[in-house]
Amino acid sequence: MIKAILVFNNHGKPRLTKFYQHFPEDVQHQIIRETFHLVSKRDDSVCNFLEGGTLIGGSDYRLIYRHYATLYFVFCVDSSESELGILDLIQSVCESPTIWSLAVKVHYILSELVMGGMVLETNMTEIITRIEEQNQLEKQE
Amino acid sequence: MALKKVKGTLERVLDKNLQDLVRGIRNHKENESKYIAECIDEIKQELKQDNLAIKANAVNKLTYLQMLGYDISWAAFNIIEVMSSTKFTFKRIGYLAASQSFHEETDVLMLTTNMIRKDMSSQNMYDSGVALNGLSCFITPDLARDLANDIMTLMTSSRPYLRKKAVLIMYKVFLQFPEALRPAFPRLKEKLEDPDPGVQSAAVNVICELARKNPKNYLSLAPLFFKLMTTSTNNWVLIKIIKLFSALTPLEPRLGKKLIEPLTNLIHSTSAMSLLYECINTVIAVLVSISSGIPNHTASIQLCVQKLRILIEDSDQNLKYLGLLAMSRILATHPKSVQGHKDLILQCLDDRDESIRLRALDLLYGMVSKKNLMEIVKKLMVHMDKAEGSHYRDELLSKTIEICSQSNYQYVTNFEWYVSILVELTRMEGTKHGKLIANQMLDVAIRVQAIRHFAVSQMAILLENSHLLANNSQRNGICEVLHAAAWICGEFSEHLSNPKATLEAMLKPKITSLPGHIQSIFVQNILKLYGKILKAAEAKEDDSLKKEVHTLLQEKLPVFIQSGDLEVQERACSILQIVKYIMKLEEKGAAVADEVENLYAGELNPVAPKAQKKVPVPEGLDLDKWINEAPDDSSDEEVPGNTFFLTTEDEHRSSYQHGDESRPTYEPTEEELEKRKAIRKTEVEHNPHYLKDDGKGHKPRHKDAFDAKDIPVAEIDLSVPLHVPGLSSSDKYMVLQQKTEKAHKGKKEKGKKKKKKGKGKTQAEESDEDEVAAVHTVSTIVDAPEGMAGSDHEDDKKSGDVYKALDINLD
């Protein structure tokens, strides 16, 4: 299961945060800070897996992250998720140009991907179709 | 009235939307919190309006602020208002805010049940979608119970989009309302064969999550999953199923046997690294669970190790990391297959990436054997010298000690070598493992009797150079080693070659810069050494030696009396008094060295870890009873100060109760000493663990040609590692072992001859794997209350209550 998805920039400012387990706001903020601290120390040439921090999860949890130009995408997952699979997921989402042109509503995009901490859909075309339809709905109203 | 309306519209035009908010925050970097506070006030005003569009905008902004760390729970009711809008856009905004901030404690959640129900059955597919999504984040037991049926209906909707979401959310429903699992399960099973691949993978996902926590309930599904595995082409589904199998095989070995073939096929055929990795993992899990070999058991292990080697050698750091991770799982059960790749793993220790280095370190831990321990530790020490980060260096240090001390020092064949390693480690400044090294020294010195002489000589050298180590006096720093050194020299002083020199070393004024707890050990052991010297002097009737020692102590001890640390002061005072009294007795001609020595008679053994808990409560003792009568309500009784501090006959306490001037010096009379001696003797008789002290004087051994005065006393810059002449180097033991091995191999055909190494006892351990003889034996005696069984397995792991509730038989 996915415990949290965090997106923040090179200075640690959160751009998108989704927690699939409840934490009060100040703890969430601490988690973001701690994760940023761990991830920003890493060179770009090292592996993308980190044994997690102390606040989020315990020994069963890992951080899987990817760094794109100015953004860090971090998934905190437990052992039921495939590490390479999640990495592929982040990659295919981030490198799809269509996604970013619709990018303002990143939360809504994310909700087509992951729901309740579990991966919902991995087929890119399906995801994009849904997002576009919902955008249409919005325009019509 | 009209004016109000116009005013209102104008204000609305000026309302900030989310983009403006974000831009505004970025523009107000200096006074961000003030700006945000203003924005929140504006939002509060907007929320008071009737217009739903305005409210939705406000809630949208609140969602962003929540991400920055601000609590928005005060707006919960407004969020629900927005959720109930008929417009999809607003509804979506409301549900998003809810999913980010609602949780079990949110009171207004009970208002949402019907709304969610209505949304789920809406004509518009996306309305239901949004509701399901939001629900998955804030579902509570009440909501789960009330909405379970509606969600189950959705599982059979005509639209795959909704079926998929409904199936996935059932997992969350089960977590909150476990009773739903049994009725929902048949339908869930059906979805495993749903025509739509998305729905199918959602079903696989849910069942895999459930099965990981309670695998035995899902064993009956194994054939179905097997079929799916061989027919599906979706990598995600395959991965989930294969991971599920690795959780199931420990329970059903026959399943494992059937899996080997399709998995091996997949390993050979797939091009997806993620799938390959999971297959390898599961094969490992299968082979671990199968106890007796299947015909191609070793072939499969070899295949896995081979593939993993390819992963580790890959330039992609991620694959390296995962390869090492999987190797460590194989290591647990098939260490031989992995040991052949030791070179590769040692190479990984050099990697730039800290995660990889740590993984390699973990692997090393399992790969040691008696033969290669010295070699591996040597390599680790080299790494420690080169290591950049002190964190990594500390990791290496603690891992080295772990490797050596595991299983009661199973792999250490020569304890002299180990002691020299420990001493070399003291050169590692800036480490926070000083205590660890000190503990190891103590442990080895206490439990390996044969090595005591060597250990004591090394410790004496350390003491004589304590001014070098004392510079670094941070807590838990390397100065902790002096604690061990002092104690060992004091306790096993019979091995000291020059006790007087050591005594002088312990009395150096530099010692006072050490932390208090170390100083107190020094003071205590000074008395032990003093007793030893006195005994020797009496035996030789060397009065001048006695006088020398007495003056030495009288000069140097007072420095400790002025210490700021309570314990040090206390001990120094008592010891000074004892020394003064003994001097008086000596002048009268009485030989009291025996009594002094008896103060420290007896062998100290390590205490078993759970011994304290196992001490039986004596009969008649009721710990829950009030000791005194329960206190009255009137609490202003004056308690005279004296009764707080009990006046005992203990000489230590009394010196603090009265001021310095009127310190009654409690001098043990002759009768007291006799009484103590008698009590001690009876204790020694009854305790089976004490070794009787037969008072044999030990002749001081001939020390190596080394003179303390040769060491330069100048303060050296500690950025350069310490080199202290006289401390033995560990290399010579390694060379010795290698030579011995070669000799052993040669002599094997001629029959077994025991070879004496140095002064230790030889115990030729004929094990199958390696025939390296262990030089010294490790004692395993521990102190414990009588009748204590072996350490209990006290289960104190936190049980996953949620998952336990889901542990139901589904057949």
UniProtKB/TrEMBL annotation, chain A:
It is found in: Cytoplasmic vesicle membrane; Golgi apparatus. It comes from the Eukaryota. One of its GO terms (cellular component) is Golgi apparatus. The keyword Protein transport applies. It is a peripheral membrane protein. Its main location: membrane. PROSITE patterns: CLAT_ADAPTOR_S (PS00989). InterPro entries: AP_complex_ssu, AP_mu_sigma_su, APS3, Clathrin_sm-chain_CS, Longin-like_dom_sf. Keywords: Cytoplasmic vesicle, Golgi apparatus, Membrane, Protein transport, Transport. Pfam families: Clat_adaptor_s. Residues 1-137 form the AP complex mu/sigma subunit domain. One of its GO terms (biological process) is intracellular protein transport. Belongs to the adaptor complexes small subunit family. Part of the AP-3 complex, an adaptor-related complex which is not clathrin-associated. The complex is associated with the Golgi region as well as more peripheral structures. It facilitates the budding of vesicles from the Golgi membrane and may be directly involved in trafficking to lysosomes. In concert with the BLOC-1 complex, AP-3 is required to target cargos into vesicles assembled at cell bodies for delivery into neurites and nerve terminals. This is AP complex subunit sigma. It comes from Candidula unifasciata.
From TrEMBL, chain B:
It is found in: Endomembrane system. Residues 649-664, 673-704, 791-801 have a biased composition (Basic and acidic residues). It holds the Pfam family AP3D1. The keyword Disulfide bond does not apply. Residues 742-760 have a biased composition (Basic residues). Residues 647-704, 739-811 are annotated as: Disordered. Its main location: membrane. Signal peptide: none annotated. This is AP-3 complex subunit delta domain-containing protein. It comes from Candidula unifasciata.
